[in-house]
Design goal:
Layout (H helix, E strand, L loop, with lengths): L14 E6 L5 E3 L6 H23 L1 H7 L5 H55 L21 H22 L2 H7 L6 H36 L1 H21 L13 H14 L33 H18 L2 H8 L4 H7 L1 E2 L1 E2 L3 E2 L7 H26 L7 H32 L6 E4 L4 H25 L5 H30 L17 H24 L29
Parallel strand pairs: 3-6
Antiparallel strand pairs: 1-2, 4-5
Family: Belongs to the major facilitator superfamily. Proton-dependent oligopeptide transporter (POT/PTR) (TC 2.A.17) family.
GO molecular function: transmembrane transporter activity
Main location: membrane
Length: about 575
């Protein structure tokens, strides 16, 4: 895109210094950006949540009831779907920062997501893409889905995941690009935009687990998935309709490239002696006589090195938050499986869809956030002296504690459900009201509120300015790895304890298994993880209080280069 310079003008007609319009000219403040443009990204994000979450929370009953898969296999497909969605955010961020920019990344991957949901819709409509309904034992019983049928399902799921990961990495950033941070009024509007962004995510989540799940269960998945596909396409059309009014930012390159370049330089120069004078180290911010046109793969600046070192300091905290999202994964897998076996009736005729129980999970998040802001912050501010009440690491710790309590509640509830089932062996539905599951949903949901805000604050504040796009990627990667860890744990437990028999934990029929032991395993692992987190966080010094030293090892102790010895 060719950049055309325009003369400076006064007032609202002045061109912005860091933004361009769709034709490559300096963006005029009064003609571009603002709330109308930012709002389109909110619609895109709500459509993404509507589709991804409604598919995930209600996929288990479909896999078990229609595709005739076991409980463990079904849980793993769900966690792999969600894990892939979040890990692809790193890929989407790389594509946006390096090649396409945020606008094209959102447009392309929203279309990809719409294709994925459309494929899922087709897989629920075409009879040949589903196995026949279960027959009597003498007629063969339940026939599992064939390779072709599962292949079509996987194609739809992981195409949807690709679209989700790609667009999710850029939606919030593109929305914030529509505001001028140098303008006091627009900067306040940008902060309000982030609050609305969080609000729209939760609105989409609530609609997904209530309205869309109800439609899937009572009118058919073809309608539920079809409506999601139409909503995504409508959001994309709205997004594209404002193209002429958007503000676009320059491509800045991916911080992943910077990280890789610094590590490569460190390895290449690992045997070089450190210079006696650290001032000889290459820093383009301070050395006007530094060599020009140096490849970043051969010569790293002090700034690049220090930014990479700063990210490395954050890795212990990053690693010890993954376990929380493994616990979170159970809310969309085995907790929903529990709900399918219990009494879900309200009144004589209405039955709550099993997937809709996650509304208590989302509701817990929405209740906890204002509770924290209005009650916890004022109290803890007086105790800690921190204007935010609790520091970001303290909030993460609280989230980890809530996850442990949530799994304790889940295990105790499962013991209650199982004892009731054993006492009523002939009952088609366990005569235990499904609201017994609320404590585990509420506790883990409250943990998410503390963990989500704590992690986001930690990564945004502690990541270097030059690697801000990596901060969101690091945060979302913990979600992804948490889901994949859940898959690994379920696979190991299923293999060790078996799929049937007296000792099996994760059986296809939950009434014949010991799911409560799996929950206790998560309690034990989460407790060990909390100890590791506390040990790692005790030695962490926040960036704003960290003292910079330039001793004999200089700032660039990881990798260095003297300008006149660059090669």
């Amino acid at each position: 895109m060719e950049i055309v310079s325009l003369p400076e003008t006064a007032g609202e007609e002045r061109p912005l210094s860091d933004a361009w319009d769709s034709k490559g000219r300096r963006a005029i403040k009064s003609r571009t950006g603002g709330w109308v443009c930012a709002a389109t990204s909110l619609v895109v994000e709500m459509g993404e949540r509507l589709a991804t979450l409604s598919i995930a929370v209600n996929l288990g009953p479909y896999l078990r009831g229609t595709m005739h898969l076991g409980s463990a296999d079904s849980a793993n497909i769900i966690t792999n779907f969600l894990g892939t969605s979040f890990i692809l955010c790193l890929f989407g961020g790389f594509i946006a920062d390096t090649f396409l920019g945020r606008y094209l990344t959102i447009a392309v991957f929203t279309a990809v997501q719409a294709c994925g949901v459309t494929i899922l819709t087709i897989s629920t409509v075409a009879p040949g893409l589903r196995p026949p309904a279960c027959a009597g034992p003498s007629s063969g019983g339940c026939v599992p889905a064939s390779g072709l049928q599962m292949g079509m399902l996987y194609l739809g799921l992981f195409t949807t995941a690709l679209g989700t990961g790609g667009l999710k990495s850029s939606v919030s950033g593109f929305g914030s690009d529509q505001f001028d941070e140098s303008d006091r009024i627009e900067k306040k509007q940008m902060m309000k935009f982030f609050r609305y962004f969080f609000f729209f995510i939760n609105v989409g989540s609530i609609l997904a687990v209530t309205v869309m799940v109800y439609i899937q269960d009572h009118f058919g998945r073809r309608w539920g998935y079809g409506i999601c596909a139409v909503a995504i396409i409508a959001g994309l059309a709205l997004f594209l309709s404002k193209t002429n009014r958007y503000r676009f930012k320059k491509l800045v390159g991916s911080p992943l490239t910077q990280f890789a370049a610094v590590v490569a330089c460190a390895w290449r120069k690992r045997r070089l002696a450190f210079p006696e004078d650290p001032s000889l180290l290459y820093d383009i911010d301070t050395k006007g006589d530094a060599p020009a046109e140096q490849s970043k793969w051969r010569l790293s600046t002090l700034t690049d090195v220090e930014e990479v070192k700063q990210v490395i300091r954050m890795l212990p905290t990053w690693a010890t938050t993954i376990m929380f999202w493994t616990v979170y994964a159970q809310m969309t897998t085995f907790s929903v499986s529990q709900a399918t076996t219990m009494d879900r009736h309200i009144g004589p005729s209405f039955e709550i869809p099993a997937g809709s129980l996650t509304v208590f999970f989302v509701g817990s998040i929405l209740v906890t956030v204002p509770f924290y802001d209005r009650i916890v912050v004022p109290v803890t501010r007086r105790i800690t002296g921190n204007p935010q009440g609790l520091s970001s690491l303290q909030r993460i710790a609280v989230g980890l504690v809530f996850s442990i309590f949530g799994m304790c509640a889940a295990s105790l509830t499962e013991r209650k459900r199982l004892s009731t089932a054993l006492a009523n062996p002939t009952a088609a539905v366990v005569p235990l009201v499904v609201f017994w599951l609320i404590p585990q949903f509420f506790l883990v949901g409250a943990g998410v509120a503390f963990m989500y805000i704590g992690q986001l604050d930690f990564f945004l504040r502690e990541c270097p300015k030059g690697m801000k796009t990596m901060s969101t990627g690091l945060f979302l990667s913990t979600l992804s790895l948490g889901f994949f860890l859940s898959t690994a744990l379920v696979t190991i437990v299923h293999k060790v304890t078996g799929s049937g028999g007296k000792g099996a934990w994760l059986t296809d029929d939950l009434n014949k298994g010991k799911l409560y032991n799996f929950y206790w395993l998560l309690v034990a692992l989460s407790t060990l993880n909390l100890v590791a987190f506390v040990a790692a966080s005790r030695g962490y010094v926040y960036k704003e209080t960290r003292t910079q030293h330039r001793g004999p090892n200089g700032m660039a102790s990881l990798v260095y280069s003297v300008p006149n010895k660059a090669h």
